[in-house]
Amino acid sequence: MNIVACVKQVPDTEALIKVKPDGSGIDEGGIKWVMSPYDEFGVEEALKTKEKFGGEVTIVSVGPARTMETIRTALAMGAEKAIHIDDPALYNADAYATASALAAAIKDIPHDIIFCGMRAIDDDSGQVGSVLAELLGLPQVTVITKLDIEGQTAKAIKPIEGAQLLIETSLPCVITAQKGLNEPRYASLPGIMKAKKKPVEVKNAGDLGLAVDQKSAVAKMSPPPARPPGKIIQGDDPAAKAAEVIRLLREEAKVI
Amino acid sequence: MAKGVWIVAEHRDGALRKISFEIASTARKLADELGDEVCAVLLGSGVEGMAPELAKYGVDKVFVAEDAALEPYTTDAYAAAVAKAVKENDPAILLLGASVQGKDLSSRLVGKLATGMASDCTDVKIDGGKLLATRPMYAGKAFGDVVVSGSPQMASLRPNVFPAVENGKAGEVVKFDAGLDAGALKTKVLEVQKDASGKIDLTEADIIVSGGRGMKGPEGYGVLEELASLLGGTVGASRAAVDAGWRPQSDQVGQTGKVVSPNLYIACGISGAIQHLAGMSSSKYIVAINKDPDAPIFARADYGVVEDLFKVVPELTAAAKKIL
Ligand SMILES: Cc1cc2nc3c(=O)[nH]c(=O)nc-3n(C[C@H](O)[C@H](O)[C@H](O)COP(=O)(O)OP(=O)(O)OC[C@H]3O[C@@H](n4cnc5c(N)ncnc54)[C@H](O)[C@@H]3O)c2cc1C
Ligand SMILES: Nc1ncnc2c1ncn2[C@@H]1O[C@H](COP(=O)(O)O)[C@@H](O)[C@H]1O
């Protein structure tokens, strides 16, 4: 089976995010870059699929030079090869432009199933997997917690509000992963050593025959609005403190 | 020229969902600023009867397509039907809910309509005749003002953030043919497994009582269930509690769980790790109960109680019983 996993490099979840004073973006100084957590679930599922059916996992990632480190992590987890799309026109690109770049790279390689994360935790947009599916003319099942493949059929569990759906689709398809799908493996030491020798093709938009077309942009970024300082309810008696909280929720916040 | 503010209505089990009223009311507000009309797309089988209720929230025209292939929701059938209506009518703005279904559909439409979208927005307005959408990024550590240069300008709205406002107008129903070729559809819902508990989903709850590692074990959640049911709320959890197997994955709030926006979030025995805050910091009011006065959750809380939660939570229930 030919399996593709799309991964994005993002700031670590612990990172302090500082917005540049002019609101043009974030200050990237001091940030530790990692694979977006939902992409770890995608890569893990790609590897499990390969282990079950045989074949190869190709990693595809759009990002600047530093992205290579995240690509190597995915290779160290067990993927065979990678395509790194590095073009300044695609840095901080919107979902449509990013998915167009991924589609341009993936359409030229055999693909039976494509894994993405449900959302990249930097822009939090949650769009790229579906846009990619549309651009490749493939069905999608998004935000899933279970996947079973049998022949040319994929069955997936998708939690919705108050229920779960069992959805069936045909391969090739795009799957987006959420927590609960699996437990991502760590890269082993031999895996890390082997990853250094695995092939990574680096391409720019021109190589892919792509004219970058952005359909949206972040005009301005700002830090979150400050929250007014809270009240700590003082006292020794739990019952009295509880009563005061209930009073405040009723009379001041008016939420109960 | 592209004109009008459009929404895609969401319904389940024969009824419109609350998010539909939230997006309809928001569309009304934007359309009034533009001097435009609000149109809704309502898709399914036997759904026309829901149109008057949508109209009550400010929709001028409801475009209804009835087709057996549109029930239940699948990405391919819905995306094809909405794209057809959009291409025929050329709206300026298209709003959906950032619900599970809305996220799936809206992102597919971004591809199909070759446009841009601001997803999971917490504010939208008109600025210079264009949509200006504000959305949390980096798990709420920054906010971005997004402009869409593609057409239509799309945004999905975070559930529970935008008010639903009735205005009692009567809208017009326009029937259209979704033009679906059922044989070409590639996804199928085989089964709907309902959550037997009938629990309100966290993303739709007005009140959430959430417990973390401080609950000590699954049995600890009894006191939270009691308080939540009295307040008409629902119980959530931190990742520590979910990973320990005390609560199901669907209860997890945070960066790798659900993003919630209730009116009231009560965090019990939760330290307030940055990944937890990522999921609940857009709550309107936050109460923290923790025995550690230095727990980071207190920096985000409106009201904090430094105390053993097993002493305080039952007293909250008792105090609430007196007034409710
Ligand atoms: C990539 C990544 C993604 C993550 N995603 C999420 C996510 O989506 N959601 C999430 O929640 N976490 C997430 N985490 C984990 C997060 O970092 C924390 O580990 C987790 O939130 C801690 O859960 P907790 O607050 O329940 O436990 P702890 O941090 O152990 O805190 C327990 C708290 O309970 C208090 N306590 C103990 N006993 C009592 C008592 N009797 N009465 C009152 N207080 C008491 C303690 O003082 C302490 O503050 C993620 C981490 C990573 C690296
Ligand atoms: N720059 C990128 N390179 C590779 N994959 C990406 C990129 N951006 C997004 N993706 C994929 O699309 C998913 C959703 O991203 P987003 O729509 O940005 O939230 C991610 O989890 C990745 O799998």
Name some characteristics of this structure.
heterodimer, A: 256 residues, alpha/beta, Rossmann fold, 2 domains, seven-stranded parallel beta sheet, 6 helices, 27% helix, globular, B: 324 residues, five-stranded parallel beta sheet, 9 helices, 18 strands, 28% helix, 28% strand, elongated, binds flavin-adenine dinucleotide, binds adenosine monophosphate
Please describe what this structure looks like.
- The complex is a heterodimer of chains A (256) and B (324).
- Chain A has 256 residues and is α/β, with parallel strands linked by helices.
- Chain A has 2 domains: 2-203, 3-Layer(aba) Sandwich (Rossmann fold); 227-256, no CATH class.
- Helices cover 27% and strands 28% of the residues of chain A.
- Chain A contains 6 helices and 14 strands.
- In chain A, the strands form 3 sheets. Chain A has a 7-stranded parallel β-sheet, sandwiched between helices.
- With 324 residues, chain B is of the alpha/beta class.
- Chain B has 2 domains: 5-184, Rossmann fold (3-Layer(aba) Sandwich), CATH 3.40.50; 202-323, 3-Layer(aba) Sandwich (Rossmann fold).
- In chain B, 28% of the residues lie in helices and 28% in strands.
- Chain B has helices spanning 18-34, 51-55, 75-89, 100-112, 221-231, 239-243, 274-280, 297-300, 309-323; strands at 5-8, 11-12, 15-16, 38-44, 61-66, 93-97, 117-121, 123-127, 130-137, 142-148, 153-157, 172-175, 187-194, 207-211, 234-237, 264-268, 285-290, 303-306.
- Chain B has a 7-stranded parallel β-sheet, sandwiched between helices.
- In chain B, a hairpin with a 2-residue loop joins strand 2 and strand 3 (15-16).
- In chain B, helix 3 (75-89) packs across helix 4 and helix 5 (221-231) packs parallel to helix 9.
- Chain B is elongated and about 60 Å long.
- Chain B starts with a strand and ends with a helix.
- The model of chain B has no long low-confidence stretch (mean pLDDT 97).
- At the A-B interface, helix 3, helix 4, strand 7, strand 9 and strand 10 of A face helix 3, helix 4, strand 7, strand 9 and strand 10 of B.
- Strand 10 of chain A pairs antiparallel with strand 13 of chain B.
- The structure holds flavin-adenine dinucleotide (FAD) and adenosine monophosphate.
